[in-house]
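seq as requested:
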Amino acid sequence: MFNVKFTHNDSSYHSLKNLYEENITVKSIAQELEFCNKDELALPIKNKMVEKHFDTLAVEDEGEIVGYIDRHELGEGGISEYMKVFSPRELVSDSTPLIQLLHIFKKKTRVFVLENNSIKKLITHADLQKPPIRMLIFGYITLLEMRLSDIILHRFGGTNWYPMISDDRLHKARQLYERRVEKNEEINLIECLQISDKFDIILKDKELRTFFQIPSKSKGKKDANAIRKLRDKISHANELGLDMSWIEIIEVVQTCGKLLEISETYHYERY
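struct tokens:
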């Protein structure tokens, strides 16, 4: 006999969502800009950039950062000949939520960070490996899992979803449930399913499939596999951006965001 209770809790869910969407900002991963003077010669600076593996370097004049240079463009002459002025499209505020930065990086490989009206920091693809980004992605996927559990429990109750997954998957969930009960953790069986199992249940129910705006079972399975793959990578501390490109990773996060937004429109009946 398994304990059945609804896990739905709007206040805790929204508190977590606000944490990920508002309180973790670009400030948490931005790195200090290194710079050269605009009156220096370009080739010696290029050699230093190669040595330090820098692609971009800020340019200062009279104590102020006034522009930047790209290493691959440098040649004969002075730095001022190669200096670029910052474009508004290259800038983000240090208070920009990290989730927004991910969307920006779908089309960019770097942004400069505006701090108190001064450009002092830089974010590149390498910075997307840092813990706050990994925490954000893992948190977003976990939030989605919470919502799927709540909606499945509300739709099917405590046991009616059992036939919608394989006997093997149900057996594994029961084993995990029993281990967690032994540790005195207050949970229900559905929390012991993998996210792919929860997607299987959603995809087999036409009403929920329509609610989540999933156009086909094949598209739903593709999205579910991508979400599971990304979560596994983060869980095992694998480097991101290798066999799964950053564009693919960002698209997975966007898919999670869309499904989360839809889930918030679900109407729970009160008993």
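The longest strand covers residues 64-70.
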